[in-house]
Design a protein that fits this description.
The protein is α/β, with parallel strands linked by helices.
């Protein structure tokens, strides 16, 4: 087994990255906090055989409260669909913020496969269980109303953070995440992250796999948790990170936060884009391949 450690991506923002697989999650398209421009740059700079969208891609919670969909968010969706058309296998594992998509499991939209969870086998033979992770969050499962309250508070923090970063940009300073800083400093938040990792790793062990790839908690990490390889791909609101598998099976966290450019004004919002996609059932062989594991 490889000794996998988080690392920063190539310093050249225009370097092309050719990898075997990419995992991204927690884009939260439809919210002002989504770093869609940085994400679009990453997608343009990266070529992969398989792209996993590990939940909270579109923030249905926020869109139900108020409509926000700038052109950059539309561009991200179109870029993903273009990758699917050009031969990249795109697999979407819905999360709690886009749980509306769970009713379409085993269907395909524009070439994007929708599954509850799935297994990815690395080039060196390791079996990784791919899941968003919200099923192991006690707040989501036991007190959903509290999760909604926390979501509003989180969005308020992100608003403060956006204006703070506008000031930093004028001083020539790089992007900095206030919410990420608070998570690392508040003892209860640190304890929550640790408990989440242990719970997910325990379920991965029960399923008999080598490791797990998840999102949900916006905390990118690769580490051993009780003999299970725990991988979290982070998010595109705070950390701006992705998990990639190189062609030799090596796993790496790519961090694009240094290239994020704060914006002084909100992006212009467009009306609901025409994203009507053909919905087709997955072929029987593929449906068996990505079926929910029991």
């Amino acid at each position: 087994m490889h000794a996998d450690h988080p690392s920063v991506g190539d310093d050249d923002p225009h370097a092309r990255l050719h990898v075997r697989a990419v995992w991204i999650s927690d884009l939260h398209l439809g919210t002002p906090g989504c770093q869609a421009v940085a994400l679009l740059d990453f997608l343009r700079d990266t070529e992969c055989q398989t792209l996993y969208l590990v939940g909270d891609i579109i923030d249905g919670w926020q869109l139900r409260r108020s409509w926000y969909w700038p052109q950059s968010h539309n561009d991200v969706v179109q870029k993903i669909l273009r990758k699917a058309r050009k031969g990249t296998r795109v697999v979407f594992v819905p999360g709690n913020h886009d749980e509306f998509a769970r009713r379409y499991v085993t269907h395909s939209f524009g070439g994007v496969e929708v599954v509850d969870d799935c297994i990815h086998v690395t080039a060196d033979g390791r079996r990784l269980w791919v899941t968003h992770g919200d099923l192991f969050d006690g707040v989501i499962q036991c007190a959903k109303w509290l999760a909604y309250v926390g979501d509003v508070a989180y969005e308020t923090t992100l608003k403060v953070n956006r204006w703070f970063n506008v000031a930093r940009a004028r001083l020539g300073l790089p992007y900095w995440s206030l919410s990420r800083y608070l998570k690392h400093k508040v003892k209860r938040a640190v304890s929550y992250v640790g408990a989440f990792e242990v719970a997910v790793a325990r379920e991965a062990r029960r399923r008999g796999v080598h490791g797990v790839v998840c999102g949900h908690i916006h905390h990118a990490e690769i580490r051993d948790v009780g003999g299970i390889l725990y991988c979290n791909d982070g998010d595109w609101v705070e950390s701006l990170t992705a998990l990639v598998e190189h062609h030799d099976g090596r796993l790496e966290i790519i961090d694009r936060s240094a290239q994020a450019a704060p914006r002084a004004q909100p992006a212009p919002v467009i009306e609901m884009a025409d994203l009507a996609l053909p919905m087709t059932p997955l072929p029987a062989a593929r449906e068996r391949e990505v079926a929910v594991l029991t």
